[in-house]
Design a protein that fits this description.
It is a single chain. With about 120 residues, this protein is α+β, with helices and mostly antiparallel strands. Helices cover about 35% and strands about 40% of the residues. It is built from four helices and five strands. It has a five-stranded antiparallel beta sheet with strand order 1-2-3-4-5, covered by helices on one side. A hairpin with a 2-residue loop joins strand 1 and strand 2. The chain is globular and about 45 Å long. The chain starts with a helix and ends with a helix.
């Protein structure tokens, strides 16, 4: 049992070291979370051999929004891959098109202009 628990901790540690390059910060997700969120908790669950869900829960400082984001972490050879595959913001489930916005919240990159554009977009469609 201890071995399994340690392996799941490894999934969290490995995930924290991942750099999502599309957000142009050069920082790992772990460092980004420390800079942009408070009341952070991490957990993980094993799905199958080499596949885990890592769950990040915390408050995005910029908008005081409670985020729970689930990332699929996959080990392949010596590489760790991760993708966000679910999230809630203030208890409201996000659909797949909103997951990028959740990442922008985590990275502190969701500004008022972007939010205003999204509100306008929703009104138009």
């Amino acid at each position: 049992v201890v071995w399994i628990g340690n392996y799941q901790e490894r999934a969290i540690t490995d995930f924290k070291n991942i750099i999502f390059t599309q957000y142009n910060t050069g920082d790992s997700i772990g460092k980004t979370v420390i800079e942009n969120m408070s009341h952070v908790e991490w957990s993980s669950e094993k799905l199958s051999k080499g596949k885990y869900n890592v769950i990040l829960t915390g408050v995005a400082n910029k908008y005081n929004a409670l985020i729970e984001a689930t990332f699929r972490v996959t080990y392949a050879d010596d590489t760790v891959y991760a993708v966000i595959n679910g999230a809630t913001v203030n208890g409201v489930a996000c659909d797949s098109t909103e997951l990028g916005l959740v990442m922008m919240l985590i990275y502190g990159q969701l500004d008022e202009d972007t939010l205003a554009g999204l509100v306008l977009w929703d009104l138009l469609w």
